[in-house]
Specification:
The complex is a heterodimer. By secondary structure, chain A is α+β, with helices and mostly antiparallel strands. Chain A has a domain at 2-65 and 122-195: Alpha-Beta Plaits. Chain A has helices spanning 23-31, 69-73, 99-103, 125-130, 135-139, 156-163, and strands spanning 9-13, 41-46, 56-61, 79-81, 87-89, 110-112, 117-119, 145-149, 166-167, 180-183. Helices cover 30% and strands 16% of the residues of chain B. Chain B contains 25 helices and 29 strands. Chain B has a seven-stranded mixed beta sheet with strand order 5-4-17-16-15-6-7. In chain B, helix 9 (262-275) crosses helix 13 (314-327) and helix 9 runs parallel beside helix 14 (345-358). Classes of the chains: A alpha+beta, B alpha/beta. Chains A and B meet through helix 1, helix 4, helix 5 and strand 8 of A and strand 3, helix 2, helix 7, helix 8 and helix 23 of B.
Chain lengths: 209, 730
């Protein structure tokens, strides 16, 4: 039975296809009512004029980590990981303290100035419920992002992961086991930062590498 | 029967129209890989969303879209995966379309100027008052100066055809499109070489040289996506551009060619192809006219000679010629669609066309193709004849070989200012903005000062509307019913599209079809407008029931099947019935029959050449005020190389003034090695004069104010890169 296993959503990103057109950023903004000046996703540029290596534009967003430091940093349990792998925020519980924002190694979170709560990408889970892919995925001109269920061995993302030609972006000292994979050869590998956890949050030793 | 879209709730779940899938679709017809990851649909609380097909209008591409509407409000625009042309995508502008609809800056009701022109003082009129006034002015000007005393200019829009029809019925042949501020020199060059303007089969190409085109920023569907798909499959891309664009950044090779020397590069490529016998002899013998003349002509244009002109090493030119030949016929010089740049723009583009001809890529996979297009029907009308009208267009004779149906904004403007050969005193503009796109804005203002009456129909108060006497509010593309539009695109993706209102027209906005129909009533021209849009569509699709049904069910009609190898054995629509490397009609018109290289004007000391362009979130001047796109870019900047910047004491972020003989503008400096030391660059779409564009008013500088109005001598198209500027810190 295909539906018997829980889902684990993931995205494989091929940065060599991205043309930095920002379609994903505007699509996300409209789909999720992201306020002015704030973004749930991004495109990180690495331009090189010398021709020594190819320029690259690398899209990114919340990596729906398996060991999310943001969840650990939330004092009220508003941020949690669902059975389908998505890390989500319960707007009723969130107190807007901002701990999770600094706890994310990828800078994927921001404080929504209108709602006064934390916000970030959730792979458009309302669209997933309608049977549609995330807004950023379907709108992309070059289909730089491939979305799917990592627990479904027949999915395109599983196939790509099993081929092994992918890498993950890991912050120094901590591996939150992200579920966004990048095509091998990306030069933008070391931009994640060691998260700042609030003073009263103590993680077990194995949390740190 | 209308081709109206119906709600299409269950559709496109997890569709993958990736580049590869699109490529497969191009061969095998539309393919929808349905791949449901989540079973069933769980609609959230509230009224279920309604989904409708339409076509984007944030630029000229007409990409397929699906609008999601809830509680009467459009919530989201998504790509229509059925549209093969748009390859199942919607760009940043397409996604920002809802802010063209829901924009507080929109024109809401008819406005009549009450202060001086451009002063921004208006009072509100009812539609009846506005239309009566416009009709009176049209009647008066037509009687006083002949019907040709009224000029019409409509932008790229599915309803522009009705403005042209109105002009015909009214009796003026002074109709200009936006295109003469854009790409007519390319059309001229390729038409005069091949007898038709081809489209490039980028998807299947193996080697592409892109001169001046910026396909990863100035998006063209499907070329932009196909270029990436082709490159992922091993196609080599060479970009020639004085600026390090994103296309240059992603190319295999980029050369910061000296501006204005592209022809030297391609003549040298041709010289190598010929001297090393690298062309397809059979193809050339069968299909090309004038090879012997051309062989003799290009002997002088060696790569060593071209290196001095272009600053591209001769060994690279020679190598690229050989690589092109090795990849031919799946190799091309990309024709491009950028605005014309030099006074010999047509001849520069002729050199692109000629190299393509030598590569034998005509009608071949990965080369230049002419896909099939659907011919829609029409409702014909007998336009009245006006005996007192002058012989010809007001801009006639000012360019060597102008397209009569497009005209020339530059030459028309000169003619209006001079009052020669006859006075033009009225101007109707629809969704076009020459105040921003036509070089030398001060001259456009001077032209308007010469008019008795000017009216603009637009969605917002553009700079052109700002100068008008009467401004009429039009609905956006999401609120109106358009005629059917057949389009020509690349490999297996030409098609047909239309639009129905997704939501009712807001405020008092009225489509231009309604406006000209109402004017026709008042001017006793109803015979030409005795139909509704539904009637018109019915006539368009009378013999095309399959198109009507596809529009209804898929939101688009795609023409599939092979796009190459379909013209074999047919004569070319040229004088010699062959590809004209040597063009004998040019001789008759006093034009060089083969491109003769003339070096560009040297950049004077202490000056820069100014070049212009855009990025993926700018549609000339039509999108920069959009509040979503404005977040990506809220002003333009002057790209200047660190060497001259340092000499001039300019630091990154400093405010600078750019001065040309035509005008001046001030904006922030972007000190960057991404432009040549002799060349400065700025984006289009800023430095507006209209206070009706609240996001961008006061931001950046306007290219049209600074650029001088040179023209391509053959087509009469504005030549945008012939201006030298001084730059100083302020």
């Amino acid at each position: 039975m295909k539906q018997s296993r829980p889902k684990k959503y993931g995205i494989v990103i091929d940065g060599s296809k991205c043309i930095d057109c920002k379609a994903c950023m505007i699509a996300c903004k409209v789909e999720n009512n992201v306020p002015e000046g704030m973004w749930r996703n991004w495109i990180r540029p690495l331009q090189n004029m010398s021709g020594k290596y190819k320029s690259e534009f690398q899209p990114g967003q919340c990596m729906q980590c398996d060991d999310p430091s943001c969840v650990a940093a939330c004092p009220v349990g508003a941020t949690y990981k669902q059975a389908d792998g998505l890390v989500v925020i319960d707007p009723k519980k969130c107190i807007g303290c901002g701990n999770c924002v600094s706890a994310c190694p990828y800078g994927a979170r921001y404080r929504n100035p209108e709602k006064k709560i934390a916000d970030k990408c959730d792979f458009c889970q309302h669209r997933l419920k309608r049977g549609e892919e995330p807004a950023c995925v379907i709108t992309c001109p070059t289909k730089s992002r491939i979305f799917g269920d990592l627990n479904d061995p027949t999915s395109e993302v599983s196939r790509l992961v099993s081929e092994g030609k992918l890498v993950r972006i890991i912050a120094p000292h901590i591996n939150t086991r992200p579920n966004i994979y990048y095509r091998e050869g990306t030069r933008l590998l070391d931009w994640a930062v060691t998260p700042t956890l609030p003073g009263n949050i103590h993680m077990p030793a194995e949390f740190w590498e | 029967m209308s081709a109206s879209s119906k709600p299409t709730i269950s559709r496109r779940s997890f569709i993958k129209l990736s580049g590869a899938a699109a490529a497969a679709a191009a061969v095998g017809g539309p393919s929808r890989v349905l791949h449901a990851l989540v079973s069933g649909k769980e609609e959230g609380a509230g009224v279920a969303a309604r989904e409708m097909f339409s076509a984007c209008d944030m630029c000229f591409n007409k990409c397929g879209l699906i609008a999601r509407v809830q509680d009467g409000v459009i919530k989201k625009l998504d790509p229509n995966p059925n549209s093969l042309k748009s390859r199942g995508m919607l760009c940043a502008r397409g996604n920002a379309g809802i802010k063209q609809l829901y924009d507080p800056d929109r024109l809401k009701y008819p406005l009549l100027r009450k202060g001086g022109r451009g002063e921004g003082k208006w009072h509100r009129l009812t539609w009846d008052q506005a239309l009566d006034h416009a009709a009176e002015q049209m009647q008066r000007i037509g009687e006083a100066y002949t019907r040709c005393g009224f000029l019409f200019m409509a932008g790229t829009d599915m309803q522009s055809t009705f403005v042209h029809r109105f002009a015909e019925a009214y009796g003026s042949y002074n109709v200009i499109s936006h295109e003469s501020n854009c790409l007519l020199s390319r059309n001229r060059a390729f038409l005069d070489t091949f007898g038709v303007v081809p489209t490039p089969d980028v998807l299947h190409s193996k080697y592409i040289i892109m001169p001046g085109a910026n396909r990863f920023e100035a998006l063209v569907t499907p070329d932009s996506m196909d270029l990436m798909t082709a490159m992922q499959g091993g196609c080599k891309l060479v970009v020639l551009d004085p600026r390090f664009t994103k296309t240059a950044a992603l190319a295999d090779e980029w050369y910061a060619i000296k501006p204005g020397t592209d022809m030297a590069f391609f003549l040298a490529i041709a010289q190598v192809l010929i001297s090393e016998n690298l062309y397809d002899e059979k193809f050339v013998a069968e299909k090309i006219n004038g090879l012997d003349e051309f062989k003799a002509h290009v002997v002088q244009y060696t790569p060593e000679w071209a290196e001095k002109e272009t600053e591209i090493p001769a060994r690279d030119i020679r190598r690229m010629a050989r690589e092109l030949a090795a990849a031919a016929p799946a190799a091309m010089i990309y024709p491009g669609r950028r605005s014309s740049d030099y006074t010999d723009s047509t001849q520069i583009r002729r050199s692109f066309a000629i190299v393509n001809a030598l590569l034998g890529n005509w009608d071949r996979e990965g080369g230049l193709i002419v896909p099939k297009k659907i011919k829609t029907g029409s409702i014909y009308h007998d336009a009245p004849f006006y005996e007192d009208n002058p012989e010809d267009r007001v801009d006639a004779g000012r360019a060597q070989m102008m397209f009569d149906e497009e005209g020339s904004f530059k030459h028309t403007r000169d003619a209006v200012i001079e009052g020669r050969p006859y006075p033009v005193k009225g101007w109707f503009t629809y969704k076009t903005n020459p105040m921003q796109t036509g070089a030398n804005r001060n001259k456009t203002i001077q032209m308007i000062d010469n008019l008795d009456f000017m009216m603009s129909v637009d969605i917002v108060m553009s700079d052109t509307a700002w100068m008008a006497d009467l401004v009429l509010p039009a609905p956006s593309y999401l609120e109106r019913k358009d005629p059917i539009s057949a389009f020509l695109a690349s490999s297996s993706c030409s098609g047909v599209i239309t639009r129905d209102p997704i939501v009712p027209a807001m405020f008092e906005s009225k489509p231009v079809f309604w406006v000209v129909k109402e004017l026709a009533k008042r001017l006793d021209l109803t015979e030409s407008f005795n139909f509704t849009i539904d009637d018109f569509r019915k006539a368009q699709l009378e013999k095309l029931p399959e198109v009507a049904s596809a529009l209804k069910n898929e939101g688009v009609y795609n023409i599939t099947g092979p796009s190459y190898g379909i013209h074999e054995g047919k004569p070319f629509k040229t004088k010699s019935k062959k590809i004209e490397i040597y063009n004998s009609r040019y001789v008759e018109n006093g034009v060089d029959p083969m491109p003769v290289y003339h070096p560009p004007q040297p950049v004077p000391r202490d000056h820069f050449r100014m070049v212009v362009g855009r990025n993926a979130f700018i549609t000339q001047s039509a999108s920069t005020n959009n509040s979503l796109l404005w977040e990506l870019q809220n002003e333009n900047s002057l790209w200047i190389h660190p060497k001259p910047a340092s000499t001039l004491g300019i630091n990154h972020g400093d405010r600078v003034e750019v001065v040309s003989p035509a005008g001046r503008g001030s904006l922030k400096a972007r000190v960057t090695e991404e432009t040549r030391p002799d060349t400065v660059y700025m984006d289009t779409g800023f430095g507006v004069i209209s206070k009706g564009l609240s996001n961008i008013f006061g931001k950046g500088a306007c290219i049209a104010e600074i650029l001088e109005d040179h023209a391509d001598s053959v087509s009469g198209n504005m030549a945008m890169h012939e201006t030298f500027v001084r730059v100083q810190r302020i």
